[in-house]
Amino acid sequence: MNQDYIIPKPWSILEEGFLPENNESSESIFSIGNGAMGQRANFEETYTGNTFQGSYIAGVYYPDKTKVGWWKNGYPEYFAKVLNAPSWIGIKVIIDGVVLDLNTCKSVTDFKRELNMKEGWLSRSFKATLSNDIQVSVKSLRFLSLVHEQIGAIRYEVTPLNRSACISFEPFLDGNIKNKDSNWDDQFWEISAISSIESSAFIEAETMKTSFKTCTYMHNHCTLNGTAVSLSLTEQNTNSRIGHTYEINVDRGSTFALEKLGGYISGSSQGSNLLKSAKAAIQNGLEKGFDGLLEEQIQAWDEIWQMADITIEGDLKAQQAIRFNIFQLNQTYLGTNPQLNIGPKGFTGEKYGGSTYWDTEAYCLPFYMATKSPDVAKNLLEYRFRHLDKAIENAEKLGFNSGAALYPMVTMNGEECHNEWEITFEEIHRNGAIAFAIYNYQRYNGDVSYTFSKGIFVLIAITRFWCQRFNFSEQKQKYVMLGVTGPNEYENNVNNNFYTNYIAKWCMEFTIQTLNEIKAVDNTRYNEVITKTKLTKQEIDAIKLMTKSIYFPYSEALDIYLQQDGFLDKKLTPVSDLNTNDRPINQHWSWDRILRSPYIKQADVLQAFYFFEDCFSIEELKKHFDFYEPLTVHESSLSPCVHSIQAAKLGRMNQAYEFYLQTSRLDLDDYNHEVSEGLHITSMAGTWMSIVEGFGGMRIKNNQLHFNPQIPKQWQSYSFKINFRGQTLKVNIRQTGATFEVSGQESINIVVNGQLTKVEPNILHSI
Could you point out which of 348, 599, 632, 693 has its C-alpha 20 to 30 Å from the C-alpha of 283? Predict the structure, then answer.
């Protein structure tokens, strides 16, 4: 572990004592968001030490043009950068002529930063001695409203401690911002207008190339000892920045405070008159007031936690971790806007680019299905359906035809926007995850309406891609898939990756199965699908025939499926033999060395065993787990959760618990030494899966909930809720047994440890 300074609290992320070397990591960990915008936990006041400034607007990006030679036909036209947006949080503080800056203060004591997850706010407090020997106490509180997604609010308080002082607040908007990941300190924003009306100010800007129009705004209100004060303001205006200066003499022990409303109005949501909409947002915020907005925030988070909370007794760090993960997932995506998706960094950093990966379908969907209304999860499926035409275009660029679709590895708008060849063109397994999500939604909700109306077109297009991507090997007399990269990205351009071949075969079979089901219940709809897709009986028969002859690499000597052809040619040295100074290997080894090593970044063969566990025996799982896990370095954030679930299934609770800690505290303890770059948002859903599917053993089989509850020895109990087909089931698991309780008016039949159990409403049922 790299860092271990976060204090364990059940409902808070807490840092005490200011250590500048931890600041960029803390800026990630204490990030806030509301699904429409978000920001790193940057200081409001001036800070000249190491900092990663970051404010982000959902769906706003910059297409950074790529240039490659003719030999890479089909290469993405651009790499999408998640843009750092104009900042609205800044407050320059001057005390008797000296700028408040924790990097230059003589001393900083009693520093405390808290992210309150229960109520959804970030606070900070400290005492500082400035270079002029004035001692001050500072408190700040800020949040991004879940109720009003365009409104953020800050309350900033300064109290002189040793003598009276002249205190100046300059709240400002700053459009002169850059991306940390910019290659040449590029500017991505063009400012079109800066304006000010009384205590409000506005910066209207748009992104270069994509022309996303935004209006960044602020409104300021000052108080002295809690009473409003009317102060004349001085405007500070440049071609990219606007500030309002408020100045007052403050007695020792008195508190000068600024309440600042701010946020963004984007053209995508508000039409063309952004300034008018920004003024309306300010008026809305003023009507509620800071305290009213905060009360709404607390209530909104309470409603989320009523359904999504997981309680753990006896393990404070585990409790803090799971709530942190659930909290960040809800800050990133709430399902209210079908045009948005779940970015791997959310609103916490710029790494990776793009906003949508296969992580959404493979890892995030189960969390949202179980903790939100079905509409939220359906929006994630609709997102891909809306991009089907683009997916077909992406495939056409690579030479595929007849309506074959290759969904992008990374996207903002349906177009591929990732610039690593071995990822963009070889990691095609993402098609399979998108198909599996359709099946998973159908399985969980018992609802085929989406599959029959829209999902079937996605399935057919993906199946056509697989049919063209396989080729028949005369030598093997089987269909093979060459030149791919599996989920394990530490092996590129391999032949017959087991996971890719397996999920492709499954997808083709599921497509045929779905067509048959549509035909059985609605022949008219079936004919509409056939007509629209121009699917022929000959093509259907060819798909069926192909699925019977797909090749899977296999070792008879070891009785296991191989990652890919030639995997056994490697020297299979276990991870335990690695020098700790070499970890993580992606930060210490050359890419050439990694590719030639046996080390696995994340679950690959075992990913297939996770998705399709009913197709493999427990003995097969044990054999494959014991072979592959010792070779896995888990340097993908997506890896530990799958291994935790499978270790639990094998009854290896000590190992399952260790994997749970790794996935849940990946960022809090910075396992991979990279949290300063931002959080691993999409893998956080895997933490929820580790508990619910791993320890709780939850599965959906034959339209019923199944549980095989286990509990780590480190815990006294844990509990979670499941929203299942209109009913809410609460599960509580203790060392001595388990209880189940369903709310509402109807009973529910569940299967616990293989036994059918009827749970009556509002009656605690013990197992």
Answer: 348
Answer yes or no: 635 catalytic.
Answer: no
For residue 431, being part of any structural domain is answered with: no
Asked whether residue 41 is assigned to any structural domain, the reply reads: yes
**718-757 per-position pLDDT tens digit:** 999 999 999 999 999 999 999 999 998 899 999 999 999 9
Q: What is the CATH number of the domain that holds 102?
A: 2.70.98.40
- As given in the structure block, the two tokens for residue 55 are 């404010």
Domain range enclosing 263: 7-308
Three-state SS annotation for 507-576: HHHHHHHHHHHHHHHCHHHHHHHHHHHCCCHHHHHHHHHHHCCECCCEECCCCEECCCCCHHHCCCCCHH
Task: Please state whether the predicted TM-score (pTM) of the whole model is above 0.85.
Answer: yes
Residue 582 tokens read as 């070499």
Spatial distance between the Cα atoms of 175 and 185, rounded to a whole number of angstroms: 14
Proportion of the chain in helix, strand, coil states, percent, rounded to 5? 35, 25, 40
- Please, are residues 109 and 125 in contact by the beta-carbon 8 Å criterion? no
Catalytic residue among 114, 426, 489, 677: 489
Structural domain count, the chain: 1
C-alpha–C-alpha distance, residues 518 and 232, integer Å: 70
Residue 745 lies in a domain: no
Distance of CA 747 to the CA centre of its chain: 35
Query: Is the distance from CB of 114 to CB of 250 less than 8 angstroms?
Result: no
Q: Closest by alpha carbon to 120, among 240, 295, 377? A: 295
Q: Look at the block and give the residue holding tokens 């990374």.
A: 410
Helix (H) / strand (E) containing 613: none
> What SS3 state is found at 397?
helix
